[in-house]
Amino acid sequence: MDRTQLSLNTITVRSLPIDRVIELAESHGLGGIAPWRHQLADAGVEHVAKLARAAGLRVSSLCRGGMFTAPDAGGRAVAVQENRRAIDEAAALGADCLVLVCGPVVGKDVPGSWQMVADGIAAVADEAAAAGVRLAIEPLHPMMAADRSVVSRSEKAIDLHEDTGPGVGVIVDAYHVWWDVTLADAIRRAGSRIAGVHVSDWVSPLTGGLLAGRGMIGDGTIDLTGLVSRCRSAGYSGLVEVEILSDRWWAADPELTLTTLIDRFERCI
Amino acid sequence: MDRTQLSLNTITVRSLPIDRVIELAESHGLGGIAPWRHQLADAGVEHVAKLARAAGLRVSSLCRGGMFTAPDAGGRAVAVQENRRAIDEAAALGADCLVLVCGPVVGKDVPGSWQMVADGIAAVADEAAAAGVRLAIEPLHPMMAADRSVVSRSEKAIDLHEDTGPGVGVIVDAYHVWWDVTLADAIRRAGSRIAGVHVSDWVSPLTGGLLAGRGMIGDGTIDLTGLVSRCRSAGYSGLVEVEILSDRWWAADPELTLTTLIDRFERCI
After folding, report:
1. What range defines the domain where residue A185 resides?
2. Any chain A CB within 8 A of the CB of B185?
3. ipTM exceeding 0.85, yes/no
4. Could you count the other beta carbons within 10 Å of the beta carbon of residue B96?
């Protein structure tokens, strides 16, 4: 797939300041970037928005909102407030969506935690729509259910979308959902609700722990070509985000990481 | 839950020889054990069967058959042969079931690998039935899809069961399936097809890697009480197996591991 279809999630080269990431993305002819909120806090939202626009880069997503689950109502209200700030930032950036990492299981209660997520999204959905920001539920890998997201299956995320309104989409992140035998059906069913497609690979044995063990495109067991092509067939026409959280690639020269992932993106997807 | 309902999966105290495990299980008043095939290879199947019978212990399962996936037909045929041997051993032990760890994703093809599993089970189902051995598909955690089992969701394992005949059951292992928001429905639907219930806990952060990071009952985020009680309501009346693969507990005195898990079993489930 052509590099103009590639959006670089900035965590992939996290040692670089955001200004430099934008410079590199432009000079390599990429289609866009996907920054994280802590980078906006450091560099200033307006500054980043202006740089990206000047470089002709789309902002495929902002990472991240969500984290709606909490043991008590006070904690959940704080989360909703934080999501309001994230929505404002996504609007200022003109981001294609705000990624929602929905929040971990609390109180050993999986269905109850899903309900908290549904309530949290419902609490901010109108404001997001008014701000022109598309919320995008990202199902994470089930191994992250205790720490990051109770939402871990695409088809159930689509159900959640249906509960929370038409403005909300879903992210198909290959690393999180590749193992699911019903994935192709879920992608078909998601159709135009696919708000983003993220790629990296699954390498085993997993090193770097659950969070930072992702593999370079093409190094692992995921049929990335099939996954991206199914998302395209289902109607997704946006950029494909490369998001590699990896101790191995973080230790490498970030420009090597970047040229490697561009090469793999063009050859393997 | 009373300890007479507890079956000790021998991997939990893997430093002990099987004779000693049987002795301890009897002296602590447990209901049964679940050995692994390599222990039978060392000690002799008939010897283990005789000791367990003499101690009044059920054999809740034999670990393990399966591993049906392979890139080529030759590899798959070898797997079928190996399952025939496992069936003979399970029959000699009078085990309640033979656990099937179905085999990893091969060729980046998740649905194709499921089909290999279905074919493999179909190839041995009649022989298992003739030998009086119940085959039990164990969905593993999705994080093990690349290494151990493409079968990773209870509800899909039940579909697989339906494809492979009425003699085949499913294992509900809390560690592997706790995160699934549809689990309660899957358990209800599984009903009398539940061939075994395994317990351990999910602790985070995960230490000991994907394989040996399980937690002691009660130390983690799984609603074990709810899970076991739902399996009972669905009709499962067999023993509840404690299977804790844990670097931490393997490093402890195995008799401490045993008394701890019995105490937790009686207090937390």
Report:
1. 3-264
2. no
3. yes
4. 23
